[in-house]
Amino acid sequence: MQSRSTGTTVSAGSSTKDAIRDAALELFRAKGFEQTSLREVADVVGITKASLYYHYASKQDLLGAIIDPIIEHMRSMAAEVDGIRWSGASVRTVLRDYLRGIVRHRHAGALLLRDTVAIINALNDRYPDWVDSTEQLRGWLAGPVPTDESKLRAVAALEVITVALVSTEYAPGAPDELVEGILLDCAVTVLDGFADR
Amino acid sequence: MQSRSTGTTVSAGSSTKDAIRDAALELFRAKGFEQTSLREVADVVGITKASLYYHYASKQDLLGAIIDPIIEHMRSMAAEVDGIRWSGASVRTVLRDYLRGIVRHRHAGALLLRDTVAIINALNDRYPDWVDSTEQLRGWLAGPVPTDESKLRAVAALEVITVALVSTEYAPGAPDELVEGILLDCAVTVLDGFADR
DNA sequence: GTCTATATACCGATAGAC
DNA sequence: GTCTATCGGTATATAGAC
To answer: For a 10 Å CB count at each end of chain A, is N or C smaller?
Structure first.
């Protein structure tokens, strides 16, 4: 659909469309979605705003290209959890899988975490059931007989997971395996109320 | 500076200036700071946009009136921590005080948490050293000899504390004392790596 | 203190030439 | 696929009457 064409220097082996997406992610993360104009994105890429519209039909489309993968990950986790019996072991497995996906989509996740209001406002037409997904996962983690305490611990555990999104800022040298191990331990501990190692 | 004047019916025992601040906080929380226009705020209060500018010199001024108290709390915690020797007991005390302040400024805190990028962008002139404050608290919590693990655990512990900002959404019936007790336990546990109760 | 009216600027999006 | 030019809308902020 997109010919590799002649050896133009848009970006190392990447199309203009991808270059726009990458530049937008960087700017959205630094300045926020609403605070970033498409003119600024186009300037970074080296094209005009009108050219950008050739590749993306709207600003929401561009945001969708960035956010889609991590939203899909969250949605699939919520669906998967529906058929899993709650237990100490399955809780750890679910949190581990969730954490791994978060790490994989780290950059988009950091945007989603820090600019939640603007992004949800812009994309609640595209993802009408995203809030329900997060709610479902939270409810499952709180256990079959939720109490105020187990609900709060579930929220706290998910909050701990999100630290993976910004781990490179605070522990730049730590490899992903270490980050995943520590945060999974923290999240499980928060849910249980005591460590099980 | 602001005469109580005659008994006008601006709001129950409150000035117009306060009514503007309260309406703005509610709208900013629901729609985000940048997504909320001063015209909308003025409409809720029942005045025009021009009248609003009589009370607040700019949109940033209005945001500052909302955010100032919690920023000041964070700054004072960071300053206080500078003279405290790090220990298991002092860590718990600091986290408890921090958590109590967060609960006290819950509404402004929830705005700050969910619209971080927009708010920091709007107010980084007014609070040039706010990021340093949070960094200082985080560094102290990580202990006298920080490792990648202790740094990550410090970030995670502070992240757990922020759950207090949205606790009323997920555990509406829980009293503040219960919320504070649970979250303090979670945060301390995350920092230690095992419970100490 | 509140109003109407307006200045100024930028935004997202489109039209149409090349 | 990229450009120039522009439309329609809305935003913050101000001027000046009452």
So the answer is: N
pLDDT at position B74 is: 97
Same domain, B48 and B84: no
pLDDT tens-digit readout, B73-101? 999 999 999 999 999 999 999 999 999 99
Give the CATH number, domain containing residue B39: 1.10.10.60
Q: What is the 3-state secondary structure (H, E, C) of B108-168?
A: HHHHHHHCHHHHHHHHCCCCCCHHHHHHHHHHHHCCCCCCHHHHHHHHHHHHHHHHHHHHH
Distance CA A63, CA A33 (A): 8
Strand D and B60 CB separated by under 7 Å: yes
Q: Is residue A3 part of a domain?
A: no
Find where tokens 């989603």 sit: A112
**A49 and A73 assigned to the same domain:** no
Q: Is pLDDT above 90 for B189?
A: yes
Q: What tens digit of pLDDT does each residue of B48-70 get?
A: 999 999 999 999 999 999 999 99
Q: How many CB pairs under 8 A join A and B?
A: 123
A154 min Cα distance to partner chain B (Å): 10
Residues A157 and A80 in one domain: yes
The total of structural domains in chain A comes to 2
C-alpha–C-alpha distance, residues A152 and B103, integer Å = 14
* Over residues B187-193, mean pLDDT: 94
Report the predicted TM-score, pTM, of the whole model to 2 decimal places.
0.91
